[in-house]
Amino acid sequence: MSNKKAYVFILDAIMALIILTIGFLVISSTYSNKPALVTTRNMAEDLLNVMAAVKVSEICPDCGNCAAELNSICGDIKNRDNTVLELIGEQYSLGTDTGQLINEIIMENKLLPGDSYEFSLYIHDGNGEHKLYPGANQDEDKARILISSKKLVMGYYVDKDNDYKTEYWGPYLIEIRTWQK
After folding, report:
1. Do you find a cis peptide bond into 171, omega within 30 degrees of 0?
2. What is the pTM of this model?
3. Are 120 and 140 in contact (CB under 8 A)?
């Protein structure tokens, strides 16, 4: 009789092991398509953080050809200690078209990896939302995953033409929308 109990116990243990193994395989084999969402979110945050951290003087450290190109795009850069986001805000407050500036800084310096991502840049002032830079294909509305990241930007410049008066601008909310092609 004790032999019969041992066989039942072993058979029960084997059945439990088979059920646990099948359950583990089913759970571990399900594929979740989350990396595209995470990668797109990281791209939006990283691009905005780079624009908030890199100063204009770091883009053109030698004040040579690059500074001349940026000056030709945005006129006279009032504060070379501004970050790229602050430069965009400053140029917006002065009424300068920033599309070419954004293209020059981001696309020419290849801040976006390859051709797999698109982005658009918006500024929110007190009067609503204004699109500063459209994505190249302008397929933002058709994007399967669209991630938005925002930062508040404000600043000042010294107006040398107006008795060195300090001019303050902002605050503006700058939003970047990123999507994968």
Report:
1. yes
2. 0.69
3. yes
pLDDT digits (tens, 9 = 90+) for 85-140: 888 888 888 887 777 777 767 666 656 666 677 888 899 988 888 888 875 556 77
C-alpha 142/C-alpha 139 separation (Å) is: 5
**CA–CA distance, 148 with 40 (Å, rounded to integer):** 9
Per residue in 57-76, pLDDT (tens digit) is 777 655 445 555 666 655 66
CA distance 176 to 5: 69
Q: Are the C-beta atoms of 143 and 130 separated by less than 8 Å?
A: no
Question: 83 in helix, strand or coil?
Answer: strand
In the chain, what are the domain boundaries? 1-30, 35-180
Pair 47, 178: CB distance under 8 Å: yes
Per-residue b or e along 107-135, where b marks 16 or more CB atoms closer than 10 Å to that residue's CB: eeeebbeeeebbbbbbbeeeeeeeebbeb
CA-to-CA distance for 170 and 125, rounded, in angstroms? 8
Quote the tokens at residue 116.
């797999």
Residue 74 tokens, joined: 């945005």
Alpha helix stretches (DSSP H) within the chain? 2-29, 35-53, 56-59, 65-74, 84-93, 99-102
